[in-house]
């Protein structure tokens, strides 16, 4: 399939070049008859000039935008309360990737929010390094990690990468998302109507809870901004609030069997 796409793109580019060359030849002949200084120009020269006219300003504007974002981050870091942290720490996903170079954390910031330690930052991944924790095989994203009190169970909400057309009566949450858990009793306390509605409405992203740390990863294509970082932190804390994980989590103890019933069975 990939080779077919490459061939189609190559043929399309060849046709486009041939068309532009023919148009330029006619146009250049007309212009050269009017302007003496353009008589030596050839279509490849004109194409190269057009490319430079587009590429150079675009590159200049991109560099200006990156410089502006860097300044915004410096001001945000100085005034927001977020402290730049180490990127080489052990992350919740570290022990679950096949190779260390599959996932690279490029920035991290720490702060306490709503009484909980929170870390936000930017990362990139290749070769499906984050598995189904993201909606892409490779890319860049913003992550947020919240360290929770108590001993909450491992749990995850995943979004399907391919979503099929909704059938009559089909639950929208189940159509677009799936849950992963080990303990059914604890899972019922995390998987209920409030977070499901928030997922369907796009209020919160898919999330993962491992070893007492809840994290989210949102794919991005644009330049990361401080506002996007803050938004990721807010969305992740919203997950904590909707699932009731803000308080000290204690697992539900198994039912205690009455001594009388045991005696009756023994007799």
Describe the protein.
This protein has seven helices and eight strands. It is of the alpha+beta class and 267 residues long. The chain folds into two domains: 2-78, no CATH class; 84-243, no CATH class. The chain has an eight-stranded antiparallel beta sheet with strand order 1-2-3-4-8-7-5-6. Strand 2 (103-113) and strand 3 (116-125) form a beta hairpin. The longest helix is centred in the N-terminal third of the chain and has 37 residues, at 43-79. The model is unreliable at 34-38 and 258-267 (pLDDT under 50). The chain crosses the membrane at residues 45-61.
Main beta sheet, described?
8 strands, antiparallel
How far apart, in Å, are the first and last alpha carbons?
71 Å
Q: What form results from the Cα inertia axes? A: globular
Instruction: State Rg.
Output: 28 Å
Strand order across the biggest sheet?
1-2-3-4-8-7-5-6
Number of helices: 7
What class, by secondary structure content?
alpha+beta
Order of helices and strands: HHEEEEEHEHHEEHH
Number of strands: 8
Count of the separate structural domains:
2
Helix content: 40-55%
Poorly predicted parts: 34-38, 258-267
Q: Provide mean pLDDT, rounded.
A: 80
Strand content: 15-25%
Keywords: Membrane, Transmembrane, Transmembrane helix
Transmembrane segments: 45-61
């Amino acid at each position: 399939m990939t080779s077919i796409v490459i061939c189609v793109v190559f043929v399309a580019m060849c046709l486009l070049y041939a068309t532009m060359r023919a148009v330029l030849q006619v146009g250049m002949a007309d212009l050269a008859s009017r302007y003496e200084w353009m008589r030596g120009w050839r279509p490849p020269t004109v194409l190269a000039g057009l490319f430079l006219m587009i590429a150079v300003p675009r590159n200049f504007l991109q560099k200006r935008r990156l410089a502006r974002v860097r300044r915004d981050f410096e001001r945000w870091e100085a005034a927001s309360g977020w402290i730049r942290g180490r990127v080489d720490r052990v992350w919740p996903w570290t022990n679950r990737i096949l190779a260390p170079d599959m996932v690279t954390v490029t920035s991290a910031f720490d702060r306490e929010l709503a009484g909980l330690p929170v870390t936000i930052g930017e990362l990139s991944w290749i070769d499906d390094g984050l598995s189904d924790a993201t909606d892409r095989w490779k890319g860049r994203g913003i992550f947020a990690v919240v360290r929770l009190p108590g001993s909450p169970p491992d749990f995850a909400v995943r979004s399907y990468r391919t979503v099929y057309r909704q059938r009559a009566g089909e639950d929208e949450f189940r159509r677009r998302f799936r849950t992963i858990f080990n303990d059914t009793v604890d899972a019922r306390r995390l998987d209920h109507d409030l977070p499901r509605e928030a997922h369907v409405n796009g209020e919160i992203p898919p999330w993962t809870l491992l070893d007492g740390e809840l994290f989210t990863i949102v794919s991005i294509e644009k330049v990361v901004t401080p506002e996007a970082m803050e938004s990721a932190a807010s969305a992740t804390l919203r997950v904590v609030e909707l699932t009731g994980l803000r308080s000290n989590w204690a697992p539900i103890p198994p039912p205690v069997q009455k001594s009388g019933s045991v005696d009756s069975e023994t007799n």
